[in-house]
Specification:
alpha/beta, Rossmann fold, Hypothetical protein af1432, 60% helix, binds fe (ii) ion
C-alpha cells in the first residue's frame, strides 16, 4: 500500500475513538473522527477508505448510518466494519442486511482490528484500481471517439469540397464551350433544370436525376473544337460548314470519354447523343428510337425547348406556345414521343423554372433553328 489509508471512526464515546485511533496509527493509517451519524455522513467525502462504525449511538444508530451510506451512490462501496458489543445472531444479521461488511467485537482487540481492516482495505484498494482504470478507459474512449468524429467530419467536408469543385469545374467547362457559342451560363442552367424535370417525371432514382442535372451542362463542350468562323457566323451555314458544325457531339464525346467518373461518363453520353433524332435523321450516328441513350433523348427536348424560347443575335425568341407547337411537329420525328408528352404534362414545372430564371438573367440562346428541322 503506497499512500496511508484514511479510516473514519464513528463512535459517540471519545475514549473508544481515541483507542481506535491509537491502534490505527500504529498500523500506519490516518483517522478521521465522527461522534454521531450526521458527522459521519458528512465526513465520508474526505476520501475515506474504510469506516469503523459503532452500532449503539444516540440519534442515528449504526444500522441507519450503514443504510444511508449504501444509498449514496458516491460512497456506497466504502467498506464498513461495525464495532459492537452485541454478539447475538439477530444483531449481526440486521447489520449485514443494512450493508455492513464485517464486525469487530467490543472490547476492542488490536489484532482483530488489524486483521479485519487489512482485508477490507485490500478490497477497497482493488475496487479503486478498477474504478480508476475504468475512468481512464472511459476518458480514452471518449477522446478517441471525439478524435474519430472530428476526423470523419473533416473527411466529409473535404469530400464535399472536392465534389463541389468537381461540379464547378464541369460547369465552367460547359460555360467555356457555350461562351464561344455566344451562349450563357443561363442557358446551361435552364436546360439542365428542364432535364431534371423530365428525369423526375420518368421516376428515375434521385441519384440519377442529380446525375442528369449535373451532366447535361456538358452537352455542347465539343463546340470548343468548332472554328469561330462557323460557330458564330451570323449567316446561314453552307453544307461544308454544317458538316464541321455536326462534329461537335463527336468532339464532346471524345473530350469526355473514358473517364472513371460517373458524372463525366454521363456527360460523354449526352454530348454524343443530344443531336440524335427519334426517326434516325439526327447525327452523328443516325441512331433511332430506343437506340438513342435516354439521357440524350431527354437532353434533346430540354435543349431545343430552351433554344426556341430564347433569343439569339439573328433570331427573336419564340413564345412558349409557338415553341411547343413547333416541337409537337417533331413528335416521333425529332423527339421521343413519350418523353415529349411527359415534358408537356410537366409544363407547369418547366415554365416555373423559366420564370424563375428569367427574373435575374438576360436570356441568350444556343441552338440554330435550322438545326432543329
Ligand atoms: Fe449541340
Ligand atoms: Fe445547348
Amino acid at each position: 500500500m503506497n499512500k496511508p489509508k484514511r479510516i473514519l471512526i464513528v463512535d459517540d464515546v471519545e475514549l473508544n475513538r481515541e483507542l481506535l485511533e491509537g491502534i490505527l496509527a500504529a498500523l500506519g493509517h490516518e483517522s478521521e473522527m465522527a461522534e454521531d451519524g450526521i458527522e459521519a455522513l458528512a465526513k465520508l467525502k474526505l476520501d475515506i477508505d474504510l469506516v469503523l462504525l459503532d452500532v449503539q449511538m444516540p440519534g442515528m444508530d449504526g444500522y441507519e448510518v450503514v443504510r444511508r451510506i449504501r444509498q449514496n451512490s458516491d460512497v456506497s462501496d466504502i467498506p464498513i466494519i461495525m464495532v459492537t458489543a452485541l454478539t447475538s445472531k439477530e444483531d449481526r444479521l440486521r447489520a449485514v442486511e443494512a450493508g455492513a461488511n464485517d464486525f469487530i467485537t467490543k472490547p476492542i482487540d488490536k489484532i482483530e482490528v488489524r486483521v479485519r481492516t487489512a482485508s477490507l482495505l485490500k478490497m477497497k484498494e482493488s475496487q479503486d484500481i478498477i474504478r480508476h482504470h475504468q475512468a481512464d478507459l472511459e476518458i480514452k474512449i471518449e477522446q478517441r471517439t471525439s478524435d474519430l468524429r472530428e476526423a470523419i467530419q473533416g473527411m466529409i467536408e473535404a469530400q464535399r469540397t472536392t465534389h463541389e469543385a468537381h461540379l464547378d469545374t464541369i460547369r465552367r467547362l460547359a460555360i467555356a464551350a457555350e461562351y464561344k457559342d455566344q451562349n450563357t451560363a443561363a442557358h446551361i442552367k435552364r436546360m439542365s433544370f428542364y432535364c431534371a424535370v423530365l428525369a423526375r417525371a420518368l421516376n428515375l432514382a434521385p441519384g440519377e436525376v442529380e446525375l442528369i442535372l449535373n451532366a447535361s451542362p456538358m452537352h455542347d463542350v465539343g463546340k470548343i473544337g468548332t472554328p469561330d468562323a462557323i460557330l458564330i457566323k451570323p449567316d446561314k451555314l453552307d453544307e461544308p460548314e454544317w458538316r464541321v458544325m455536326r462534329q461537335h457531339p463527336t468532339i464532346g464525346g471524345e473530350i469526355l470519354r473514358d473517364s472513371p467518373h460517373e458524372l463525366l461518363q454521363a456527360g460523354a453520353i449526352i454530348a454524343l447523343s443530344h443531336h440524335e433524332k427519334w426517326d434516325g435523321s439526327g447525327y452523328p450516328k443516325g441512331l433511332s428510337g430506343q437506340d438513342i441513350p435516354l439521357y440524350g433523348r431527354i437532353c434533346a427536348i430540354a435543349d431545343v425547348f430552351d433554344a426556341l424560347t430564347s433569343e439569339r443575335p439573328y433570331k427573336k425568341s419564340f413564345t412558349n406556345d409557338a415553341s411547343l407547337d413547333f416541337m409537337k411537329e417533331g413528335r416521333g420525328k425529332h423527339f421521343d414521343p413519350k418523353l415529349l408528352d411527359l415534358f408537356i404534362e410537366n409544363l407547369d414545372e418547366v415554365l416555373a423554372i423559366q420564370e424563375e430564371q428569367r427574373k435575374n438573367i438576360q436570356i441568350e440562346t444556343d441552338l440554330d433553328v435550322e438545326e432543329l428541322r
